[in-house]
């Protein structure tokens, strides 16, 4: 394969990855930052950085974890520049109604709002576990935490959601 | 394992099913109910998190991703890749075992272990979003679809579904790009199923402990509308 063909193949493979993983990356970035604009910026920057570093991806089966790691790093960078201090969670929820709305299912909309209100430390491992399908061990490695700390955060996240949805009394802090 | 330990563990991992968990479930109906509730809530959490990405936005991708290569170069690339492909194919054919589609399918299923645990039906709009690009549709009769996404497989992006069939969840991969001449049985690493020739490419249907994989495959196959 000559250089031009190699480049065409590289683009094709990267395009395939983008098409399949972009929706989940967008969702991940949205739940991480709770802001559509921020999510778009993070994913766009993630894709550019991923393209530049594409040759370092040895196993394309691991592309999702690789992209998520880039997105997390990018989010931390963008977050420190752009994100405003949030004082009222209801305002935040109202600003993203278009994404959170589920007119056909009130319970679903309640759950979305409840997840939106979770603290960052609880929301991120929950998204990685339920949406992305990672084990607690994998999440611990991604977040640089002990597995026990991830288990505690996930337990508290669900306890908080159960309380928000009126299933149990307020959990201990 | 006592009740508080059980609840702490399942509160963090609702689908935990190891020996300790199973034993406590047998001994404590209240905790078993609690875990069932948590699993059901996780279904709702999964649906809640799976917001429509189109509503979030459309990040700009590098321009070249949407630009076709110049026609002459593309023709040359196709011709060159055909020559290379045929050569490589010949070498592989005579020097190495043929790649097993059964193994590829099982590898893919093992890559996404959470998919089979989903229990809540996917919203019709989300399912259409997965099938529409391939011009396919799922008619009623296959069973509830509890997982639907588009995945990279063999260099292509293919619909990956989990359908709740009568004997339990089965994974369905619609492989429009992969023509096969006759059915290939899957029976490895605990997974059973079949890859069947389809009007367009092939369809893989695989699950764990399926009593009658052929019957399940037949029902799912008949429920797929392959489009015009």
Return the string of H and E elements of chain A. HHHHHHHHH
Q: Total helix count of chain A?
A: 9
Instruction: Classify the fold: give the CATH topology of the domain at 1-84 in chain A.
Output: Rna Polymerase Sigma Factor, Chain: A
CATH class of the largest domain in chain B: Alpha Beta
By DSSP (H or I, 4+ residues per run), the number of helices of chain B equals 8
Radius of gyration of chain B: 21 Å
State the name of the first-level CATH class of the domain at 1-84 in chain A: Mainly Alpha
CATH topology of the largest domain in chain B: Protein Transport Mog1p, Chain A
If classified by CATH, what would the architecture of the largest domain in chain B be?
A: 3-Layer(aba) Sandwich
Helix/strand class of chain B? alpha+beta
Number of domains as seen in the coordinates of chain B? 3
Q: Name the helicity range of chain A.
A: over 70%
Hey, roughly how much beta strand do the residues of chain B contain?
A: 15-25%
**Rg over C-alpha atoms of chain A, rounded to the nearest angstrom:** 18 Å
Separation, N- and C-terminal Cα atoms of chain A:
60 Å
Summarize model confidence as the mean pLDDT of chain B.
77
**What proportion strand of chain A?**
under 5%
Helical content of chain B stands at 40-55%
| Multimeric status of the protein | heterodimer
Find the count of extended strands of chain A (DSSP E, 2+ residues): 0
Outline type of chain B: globular
């Amino acid at each position: 394969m000559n250089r031009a063909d190699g480049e065409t193949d590289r683009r094709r493979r990267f395009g395939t990855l983008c098409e399949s993983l972009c929706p989940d990356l967008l969702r991940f970035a949205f739940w991480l930052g709770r802001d559509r604009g921020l999510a778009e910026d993070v994913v766009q920057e993630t894709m550019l950085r991923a393209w530049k570093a594409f040759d370092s991806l040895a196993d394309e089966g691991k592309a999702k974890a690789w992209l998520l790691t880039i997105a997390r790093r990018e989010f931390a960078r963008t977050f420190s520049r752009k994100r405003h201090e949030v004082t009222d969670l209801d305002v935040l929820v109202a600003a993203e109604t278009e994404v959170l709305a589920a007119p056909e299912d009130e319970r679903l909309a309640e759950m979305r709002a409840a997840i939106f209100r979770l603290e960052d430390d609880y929301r991120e491992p929950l998204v990685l576990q339920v949406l992305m399908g990672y084990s607690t061990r994998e999440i611990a490695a991604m977040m640089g935490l002990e597995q026990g700390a991830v288990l505690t955060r996930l337990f508290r996240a669900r306890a908080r959601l159960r309380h928000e949805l009126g299933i149990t009394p307020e959990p201990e802090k | 394992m006592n009740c508080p330990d059980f609840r702490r563990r399942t509160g963090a991992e609702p689908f935990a099913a190891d020996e300790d968990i199973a034993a406590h479930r047998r001994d404590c109906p209240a905790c078993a109910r609690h875990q069932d509730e948590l699993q059901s809530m996780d279904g709702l959490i999964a649906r809640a998190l799976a917001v429509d990405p189109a509503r979030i936005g459309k990040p700009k991708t590098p321009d070249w991703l949407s630009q076709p290569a110049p026609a002459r170069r593309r023709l040359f690339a196709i011709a060159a890749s055909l020559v290379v492909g045929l050569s490589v194919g010949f070498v592989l054919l005579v020097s190495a075992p043929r790649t097993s589609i059964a193994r590829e399918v099982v590898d893919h299923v093992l890559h996404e272990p959470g998919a089979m645990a989903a229990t809540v039906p996917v919203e019709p709009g989300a399912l259409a979003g997965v099938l529409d690009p391939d011009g396919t549709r799922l008619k009623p009769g296959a069973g509830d679809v509890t997982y639907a996404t588009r995945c990279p497989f063999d260099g292509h992006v293919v619909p990956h579904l989990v359908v709740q069939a009568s004997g339990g969840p089965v994974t369905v991969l619609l492989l429009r790009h992969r023509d096969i001449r006759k059915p290939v049985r899957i029976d490895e690493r605990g997974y059973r199923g079949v890859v069947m020739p389809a009007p367009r490419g092939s369809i893989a249907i695989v699950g764990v402990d399926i009593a009658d994989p052929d019957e399940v495959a037949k029902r799912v196959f008949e429920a797929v509308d392959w489009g015009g």
